[in-house]
């Protein structure tokens, strides 16, 4: 954004809202991708600037890049998340799947149909429910789960850290919202556009994959003075305030670097998904001061307890005049900040009807975090442990981990390095 | 819209998108409500123009009016629909419920919080997850179901036509997506804002109602040359092309007039909800010409078969040079148009995960129609009967009918006339 302003250039393909959203991490990346400007190459290698796909679509995020889209991309208002079971038996067939998905993903992210109808006597190549919509900032993010490496022998390409998460205190994990061989995360500013993307990608893979589970989610992105704020979860607290900002920070926290992982995953990231039921009725009977003590932040401002600004430093050791901790040591944020690990939160709320037996909302958080190693999440979750006051109000019911590939270069395909013989 | 242009007045409270959407039915109503202009009173009684609540909220629809909002209001991109079971035992308590909901509904539709927090030691009066969002064109529409009149004796105020729908061929109705004593339809251009409204209204009624079922839904509203188009369902066909346009037509089809219903329902409408599962995988294996023969329209344009424009007249008797019907007599639209009844469709798509046993999408249409009498829907549905080609691709799994009150006058409350002793 800063570089944009310096250059005085505003690309027509980038909508006002999209530009406004480009204040967080990933912003420069998208702007470069979309506009192809040459003056600000310092952040990224030239390779990736050259990967622009020349689409003139409105409200589009570039598919190509050093990292996959949908990770540091500013959160859109909708997600459709799908976890797939692979049915094919050979690595060649599996590779073919990703090869087939790649041009489709480019088309979808450009807001274009998968292919033109050539003949009325055949089923439409595109299911069509997104016709007339622009790209709606659709991002598609692909990852592979631990179970895929049990089905296929990738030898020493299997990363040791790619395994199902351990059991955490109070977990009540249900298989039908957990795990999977492949994940596709579709995020967009329109729910139907996100669903359309998943539907068409699954359709292309018909007979080769089946859906294990899927979940729709949403985010309210508040705009203040024309700038997007941090979304609030269904407990009304801001979610993502502490996220890494800027590519350098993301490279430290989110994207695996060359010395840190298997070569096919360099520039990739681990996605952790947790379907967290939130007991809204219990929460709604809780006093505001107790809610704030549970999070360790003020609700309305998002500021650390005792401070006023959302982005004021979270100093968990800070004490009041009586020598007592200002941020309670059983609060969510105190425990999370008690360890060194950080991660990028990119969660969405869900509301999936009513729990029959009680008439309560079946609602909560499709927690999604990205980190270069699952141990970052595990360390934080272990710190929360049984101490976290939040445990009274939530139940983790789904769990999944996926290794998300690095970004795709033009001419390549999703996950190519996993299949290469290097 | 036309009147707006003639007067050359554009109200600041009405966003560009909102204005652009005001091309269909109800448009003038909202514009008048929001702007308080006096020059175009001919369509509505002056009473209702005076009902503007003076909110300065952005992207707001007026709560007050001759008819409830959310009926002829242009379709927003999200719905959260809730069906409630009433727990209170007396009509006085029931009346109190609607009295309590009225100011809350006004606040919600203005994008304001339910009430201010006066004291940190109590639960927040507003659950807060919509904080920072504007009104997002939220509409709230309240109705009462047949079962309410079994719980409470309203004497001859019970309309004879308010009863559960009959069984139709191929119906597979499940109780957990059907019926209810009260419905609240929340529609908005943001999913979290719609959910927030239902959550807070149910919370206000805690102990007095419980949720029977709820369903989230979405619509992609395509914009062409700055104007909103007809949304497409998940079969990619436009849904709502034949809707009544303008208040006069709505008064003919949608809103019960004084000679047509019980006095408390004059200006009201019947809402019919059908949760229709769409077998997307079967549909997606069907040739385009067969899909079009199923609807009786062309997919991309929405035009009647053999024509080119979405709004070209649907002449079901038209024959080709061989003397054969151009629009197949087993098509959905042929059968629907074979009877005189009309209705206002205001449906939303849903995607609720995966059907465990098959890995198929659990997705479809939350069909919602408004009509002055349920017999309009019944006549059309009976005509579709077993003949409708669409039956191969859909299964009706939920069914509900609600009598939606007329609009609320300032100083009154939702449903007041039902409780009056007149």
Automatic annotation (TrEMBL), chains A, B:
Catalysed reactions, as listed in the record: heme b + 2 H(+) = protoporphyrin IX + Fe(2+)
Principal location class: other
Record-level GO cellular component terms: cell envelope; cytosol
Residue ranges of the TM segments: 20-41
Enzyme class at the top of the EC tree: oxidoreductase
UniProt KW keywords: Heme, Iron, Lyase, Membrane, Metal-binding, Oxidoreductase, Peroxidase, Signal, Transmembrane, Transmembrane helix
Dyp-type peroxidase C-terminal domain ranges (all copies): 230-408
Pfam families associated with the record: Dyp_perox_C, Dyp_perox_N
Role played: Involved in the recovery of exogenous heme iron. Extracts iron from heme while preserving the protoporphyrin ring intact.
Family label: Belongs to the DyP-type peroxidase family.
Protein name: Deferrochelatase
Gene that encodes the chain: efeN
């Amino acid at each position: 954004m800063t570089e944009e302003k310096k250059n005085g250039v505003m690309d027509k393909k980038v909508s006002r809202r999209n530009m406004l959203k480009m204040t967080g991490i990933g912003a420069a990346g998208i702007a470069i991708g979309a506009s192809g400007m040459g003056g600000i190459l310092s952040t990224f290698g030239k390779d990736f600037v050259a990967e622009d796909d020349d689409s003139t679509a409105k409200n589009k995020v570039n598919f190509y890049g050093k990292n996959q889209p949908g990770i540091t991309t500013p959160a859109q208002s909708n997600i459709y998340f799908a976890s797939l079971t692979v049915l094919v038996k050979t690595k060649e067939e599996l590779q073919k799947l990703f090869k087939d998905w790649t041009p489709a993903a480019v088309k979808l992210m450009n807001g274009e149909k998968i292919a033109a109808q050539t003949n009325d006597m055949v089923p439409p190549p595109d299911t069509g429910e997104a016709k007339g919509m622009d790209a709606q900032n659709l991002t598609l993010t692909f990852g592979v789960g631990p179970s895929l490496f049990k089905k296929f022998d990738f030898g020493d390409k299997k990363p040791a850290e790619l395994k199902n998460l351990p059991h955490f205190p109070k977990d009540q994990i249900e298989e039908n919202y957990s795990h999977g061989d492949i994940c596709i995360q579709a995020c967009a500013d329109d729910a139907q556009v996100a669903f359309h993307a998943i539907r068409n990608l699954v359709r292309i893979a018909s007979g080769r994959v089946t859906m294990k589970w899927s979940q729709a989610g949403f985010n309210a992105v508040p705009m203040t003075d024309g700038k997007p704020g941090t979304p609030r979860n269904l407990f009304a607290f801001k979610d993502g305030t502490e996220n890494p900002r800027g590519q350098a920070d993301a490279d430290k926290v989110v994207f695996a670097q060359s010395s840190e992982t298997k070569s096919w995953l360099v520039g990739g990231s681990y996605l952790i998904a947790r379907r967290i039921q939130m007991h809204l009725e219990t929460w709604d009977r809780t006093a505001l001061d107790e809610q704030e003590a549970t999070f360790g932040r003020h609700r309305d401002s998002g500021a650390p307890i005792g401070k006023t600004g959302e982005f004021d430093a979270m100093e968990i050791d800070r004490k009041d005049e009586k020598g007592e901790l200002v941020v309670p040591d059983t609060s969510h944020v105190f425990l999370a900040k008690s360890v060194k690990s950080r991660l990028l939160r990119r969660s969405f709320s869900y509301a999936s009807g009513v729990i029959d037996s009680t008439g309560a909302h079946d609602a909560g958080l499709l927690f999604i975090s990205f980190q270069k190693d699952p141990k970052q999440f595990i360390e934080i979750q272990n710190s929360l442990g049984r101490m976290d006051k939040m445990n009274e109000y939530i139940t983790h019911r789904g769990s999944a981990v996926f290794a998300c590939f690095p970004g795709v270069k033009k001419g390549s395909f999703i996950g190519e390095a996993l299949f290469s013989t290097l």
